Amino acid sequence: MPTVSTANVNGVRAATGKGLLEWIVAVDADVICLQEVRARPDEVPDALTALLAERGLHLTLAPSETAKGRNGVAVLSRTEPLAVRVGFGDPESDDEGRYLEVDLPGLTAASLYLPKGVTGTPKQERKDRFLERFAPYLDDAWRRARGDGREMVVCGDWNLAPAEADVRNWKGNRRNSGFLPHERAWWAGLLERGWVDVVRSVHPDADGPYSWWTYRGRAFDNDVGWRIDHQLATPGLAVLAKDAVVDRAPSHAERWSDHAPVTVRYAPASGGWP
Q1: What does this protein's record comment on cofactor binding (predicted)?
Q2: What is the CATH topology of the domain spanning 3-266?
């Protein structure tokens, strides 16, 4: 059964020594999308490079070209990509290591690190501009993928919780970036145009499952989290989803990121991917 996973690693060099390698082996995914890699190709740890070679995984990396040690997205895939696209034509973000798209047989997979915002600041204004430009691009990308006979999935850290069920303390976060009314309306617009929130489609009535917890206090221990790591898919792929899980660490001490990976297992597709 094909498996797609996404994880904000909070720095691939640090995560490699904390449990990332063991997770890659355990999840045994066909496609893994990574965010906040924070490394250029020559900075990827040797241990990770060796593991990928051993597992037959191809690494496609889009580092930040504007700030060393920041951002960066990657896709690991069992099949070597047929085509690679970095960015989506946004002059503010294309060089920041925020979006990477690869074409595989029957599937286009994208890794996204959507900007964070802070309510009432230029950071939020910048995030809003990203949202405004990204939505029409996604629709164009879907049309392109469909024309090439591919389904599409956009995986990553969206820095956006779509609904009350996606934030443990939603009442206290109504004015915070990531849960603002216009951000949630933007996400709802994607769904109205046919995109599918795969994890929510598998768990329609659940609180969460949360994928991010602040390091402050005992948020992780008390499961005071947010669901902001998503797999947004075209309907033809989403309908194949058989299981969706958040790979939550057993304890706070065993975390290798403030995010937990989100993994979806799909039934085999007629297109032959991966």
Answers
A1: Probably binds two magnesium or manganese ions per subunit.
A2: Deoxyribonuclease I; Chain A (3.60.10)
Q: Which distant-in-sequence residues (6+ apart) come within 8 Å of 34 by Cβ?
A: 6, 7, 8, 9, 12, 73, 74, 75, 76, 111
What's the pLDDT tens digit per position in 43-92?
999 999 999 999 999 999 999 999 888 999 999 999 999 999 999 999 99
Smallest CA-to-CA distance from 226 within 210, 214, 249, 215 is with 210
* 124-144 per-position pLDDT tens digit: 999 999 999 999 999 999 999
Nearest residue to 63 (alpha-carbon basis) of 83, 90, 36:
36
Domain ranges of the chain: 3-266
Q: What is the distance between the alpha carbons of residues 172 and 14, in angstroms, rounded to a whole number?
A: 32
* 3-state secondary structure at position 257: coil
Annotated catalytic, 113? yes
Would you call 157 a catalytic residue per the annotation?
A: yes
Say if residue 222 carries a ligand binding annotation.
no
Is 259 annotated as contributing to ligand binding?
A: yes
Is 159 known to sit in a ligand binding site? yes
**Cα–Cα distance measured from residue 221 to residue 232, given in angstroms and rounded to the nearest whole number:** 28
- Kindly report the pTM of this predicted structure: 0.96
Q: Which of 103, 157, 197, 229 is catalytic?
A: 157
> Active site includes 205?
no
